[in-house]
Every structure is written in structure tokens, then in C-alpha cells.
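User: Modeling request: complex.
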Amino acid sequence: DQQVKQNSPSLSVQEGRISILNCDYTNSMFDYFLWYKKYPAEGPTFLISISSIKDKNEDGRFTVFLNKSAKHLSLHIVPSQPGDSAVYFCATMGSSNTGKLIFGQGTTLQVKP
Amino acid sequence: DAGVTQSPTHLIKTRGQQVTLRCSPKSGHDTVSWYQQALGQGPQFIFQYYEEEERQRGNFPDRFSGHQFPNYSSELNVNALLLGDSALYLCASSSQTSGAYEQYFGPGTRLTVT
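Assistant: Request completed. Predicted assembly structure:
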């Protein structure tokens, strides 16, 4: 059973516009969430995270929003750049924060020049 | 400062064979986790090693085993390979002192079982 779901396999946006990637989770006890970006032939690289005590975290062009009641989080990229084209994974530490990451299936973002 | 390194990059094995994958963690890290990423899926947690012991294990059969050495490097062993074991195997390292939140991934080993 998929505990973290990214229902959109792919997303295409124009350079300069906003990219919104979505993620849903099943367990309300999950309390720390991360987004990773992955280029081909490279391992995932950490992008941004959020704790359940917050509903928003910003880092430059990247903002993550957490809606605990809906068990939903989203990653906003503004403005989108061609170099942002990659696979984005949503992940959680679950409820134990012991280092085991539970990943979604990933969303492939294409930013067109 | 070298990041997480993994070897080999690619590997082709036959069903029933055994394979060993290797991982060197980022400098200063003492914890190594292994993940399997099947095509079109997110990485799935296999197990985690700290202080040369397996600390956590995901839902993988006993054919998957590992080891951590005193220098914190790690090996993943898979016995009796099945076609379904074909995947990208990722190693991630972290430090217990800075918490498990920051995990750095290597580029992975692409295993193909024929």
C-alpha cells in the first residue's frame, strides 16, 4: 500500500512560470517531509523540507506547503527554469524519524524554454 | 570532499547468481542506508547500518543482506538473483550526531538480471 503518493507522473511548464508538484500521504502521524530532485545518472539530491509544526517553508525559488488536515503537501517553484527539469520525489521520515525514508513515485518536471 | 560513492556503476548478472554492491559514505558520516529504485517508482528502503549493525530493515527478503565496515563503508549482497531484482540500487549516508534528516545519496548501481 502506497503511503506517499504523487499522482501526477509528469508536468510540463513554460520557463518563468510557476511549477506546482503535489504529494499526498496516508498517515496523520507522519511529521517530517522532504523533497528530493533527481537528474538522470545521479542520485537524488535534497531540495527542501518541512516539519509538521509549520505549514510553509521557503528557500529561494522553492516553497513547500503542508496541509495537515488534508494530508497533502506541495512544492512550488517560482520562477521555473530549464535547469529545474528533473524527477521530483516527495518523501517522509514516517512517524519515527529514524532515517528510513518513504518515497512517492516521483513526478517528472519538464520546463520548456 | 568526496560525496557518497558507489561501485560498480552498472552490473549485469544472471538469475540465480549472487551480487555485491559497494558504498563509501560522505566524509564525516557514520550511517548508511540502502534503497532499491525500480523503473518508474520511488526508492524503497532496504535497510540501514550504523555501528556495523543492521538497525532497521524494510520489507525485503533475507536474500538481501548487508555489512558495514569499521571505516563506515558498506556492502549490499543479494543472493539467488531474480529478474525482479533488476533496479537502481542507491546508497545514502547520514550522521547520527546531526540527526537522520540530512541524507546524501550516491549515483547508484544499475543492476540488470537476465
